[in-house]
Amino acid sequence: MSTTTGEAEKQAEVAGIRAKRRARVAWAFLTPALIVTAFVALYPLCDTLYLSLTNTRLGSEEPARFVGLSNYVELAHDGFFLDALLLTVFFAVITVVLELALGLGIALLLDARFKGRSAVRAAMLVPWAIPTAVSTQMWKWMYNDVYGVFNDVLVNRLGLLSEPIAFTADPRTSLPAAVLVDVWKTTPFVALLLLAGLQLIPRELYEAARVDGATRLQAFTRITLPLLRPALLVALVFRTLDALRVFDVFYVMFGSRPDMQTLATYAHEILVSISDVGYGSAVSTAIFLVIAVFIMIYVALFQRRET
């Protein structure tokens, strides 16, 4: 009996030594990545947070001084910032919902077996591969009221409009025009993420459901959606993060137009055009906080559904 107990203790000791050795090896591999992450992400974040508490301004003869939370107090009463915040959140909600819905539909189609599926998957990457500034300028030309293809089709070919519309200049169509560009460009990325998640679902589950008499809708709601939740969360986080810091689509399409400023273009305006580093850093910190709030909400919602 005592011999058996001694062997068990010895095995537990050996297992503990091995676990500590694996932990040391893991930290040895992780440490360089953590150092790089701290240097390229954490340090700029802390520096931006510090600058947001000062009145630093490029080219100013006065030395920068600590002003506490005054930049944030001013931010809370800044009408341009609040308009940019509302526009950015509205844009993010619309685009993320559309991209998830369309991306899921495309992923389900591509998950089926058909001839030429590989070519279709490769072709889907074309919008994603084009630089955003280039694709946005391309769409801007297509939206043009004089030589744009949309007005040519809607007015001259189909006769649906009596006169051309300046899609990017008219306040009623400016936001939908930007939404369409973003959805066109990033839906393939969402579809590929969800397709990867779909291919991890065991086919045996669908066969068992079919044997039990489940309909396609029941299989989708009770097998596909629950097992696709991790991929949906990844797609949701990535796209929300991108949509909330959208810059190039709005900057190329609208420049510095006041009614079409997003948080990122407004921060660029303050930091580059006005050179107010302190206040611009406060705007940048606000963008970070807005993104953090959205991510925490997503994680909390998904964790609640899992429990």
UniProtKB/TrEMBL annotation:
Topology class, membrane: Multi-pass membrane protein
Stretches that traverse the bilayer: 25-45, 84-110, 223-241, 279-301
Keyword Transmembrane among UniProt keywords: yes
Location in or out of the cell: Cell membrane
Family matches, as SUPFAM superfamilies: MetI-like
Domain ABC transmembrane type-1 positions: 85-300
InterPro entries: MetI-like, MetI-like_sf
Family listed: Belongs to the binding-protein-dependent transport system permease family.
Name this protein carries in UniProt: Sugar ABC transporter permease
